[in-house]
Amino acid sequence: MEGSQSLEEHPYIPRDLKLPGFVPGVLSQSTIIGFYAVSSLLVVSTIFVLSGRSPKRSKTERWLMCWWAFTGLTHMILEGYFVFSPEFYKDKTACYLAEVWKEYSKGDSRYAARDAGVVAVEGLTAVLEGPASLLAVYALATGKSYSYILQFAISLGQLYGTAAYFITSWLEGDNFAASPFYYYAYYIGANASWVVIPTLISIRCWKKICAAFQVQGQKKTKVR
Amino acid sequence: MEGSQSLEEHPYIPRDLKLPGFVPGVLSQSTIIGFYAVSSLLVVSTIFVLSGRSPKRSKTERWLMCWWAFTGLTHMILEGYFVFSPEFYKDKTACYLAEVWKEYSKGDSRYAARDAGVVAVEGLTAVLEGPASLLAVYALATGKSYSYILQFAISLGQLYGTAAYFITSWLEGDNFAASPFYYYAYYIGANASWVVIPTLISIRCWKKICAAFQVQGQKKTKVR
């Protein structure tokens, strides 16, 4: 009986996942998602307004600055907390960041289980891509010549990470969600932005960089 | 007794790794490495000689073409075989590619054990980076405007993959080598080129791309 009790303690799949000392989350799903949505909206609208001060800046560039600020802070704060808090599921203080990962683990229990593939991808994302995303905001704001190659590098890192994240789950049986709802809402839905947006940005940067080399080529021909 | 016999069957660490049906390798270490070295030398020298036919091409570009041909074929043939041969350790035919992975697993038994992280990284490497590397040879040979951004993208993928490869091993206890010799020769030594060379190429491409945007910027200023 004791054995079956300890298996019933957490809401995650697989049911036989051992999480000794697990403390259930106390914040509701709507509180957790609502707070993330409102904070993100605050960041995005602040960047959008501030970036509009320069009349030379295009709408696309302003939206890109919003994206890099949003994704950079998500990587550094949310994912950074996960990477350096192996025991978040034992948290008793209702700390918001621990609650996020207790909730998200319903869509992918490998977070609570501390799967090495997930921790490696999240580690690279939080430590390298997070700060690099904030650098991309600065590069766009100041029109640096490395702006496109930096955005391309981070987007490619995000795509590689998301691909590895989905492939490892598939190889391990794709059975880490507490229900189809959590599977589609959290595991698929929450990650979809990090497939679609980096793909669009990569294509845009690729084209801009090719165009720059064509201009350089024309210039060289003229000089000759 | 039966249990302990089956544990003694393979030469890998951890000793309790289960590999039912394991067939020991028959080719010697020097045969395996020698064949890879001679084939690689053949590829590299062929590309180096052929690429020298155009007098406009710099030495650096010729060496880059050699690297991309070598790494592309390694990704597609060696790593491609591994990805699509989950039971290579049962091979009885002394097939060279199976022998390579039976030997390399002495440096990292996660290959024989089919660790999801390793298979995911090798899958992305073999299926995406392999063909892309051969495209880089073509792009360099024909002076395409996408040459630098393509080389940058593949190098970054190689660096991300190698980082994820080392980090997952470290998170899982870094105890997958049959001896310190295999650890340093195979796990560290054989992977070192895919850290050093992609780093150098990434830096070179980053600088070239930034320079192209500076030229473009100057041109725009002149036109005004």
From TrEMBL, chains A, B:
Q: Name one Pfam family in it.
A: EBP
Q: Which domain of life is it from?
A: Eukaryota
Q: Which UniProt keywords apply?
A: Isomerase, Lipid biosynthesis, Lipid metabolism, Membrane, Steroid biosynthesis, Steroid metabolism, Sterol biosynthesis, Sterol metabolism, Transmembrane, Transmembrane helix
In its UniProt entry, the species of origin is given as Lithocarpus litseifolius
Q: For this chain's UniProt record, which GO biological process terms are given?
A: sterol biosynthetic process
Cell location: Membrane
User: Where's the EXPERA domain?
Assistant: 60-202
- Annotated transmembrane regions: 32-51, 63-84, 116-141, 148-171, 183-203
Q: Which GO terms describe its molecular function?
A: C-8 sterol isomerase activity; cholestenol delta-isomerase activity; steroid Delta-isomerase activity
The topology of this chain with respect to the membrane is: Multi-pass membrane protein
Instruction: Please state which protein family the record places this protein in.
Output: Belongs to the EBP family.
Signal peptide bounds? none
State what protein this is by name: EXPERA domain-containing protein
**What are its GO cellular component terms?**
endoplasmic reticulum; membrane
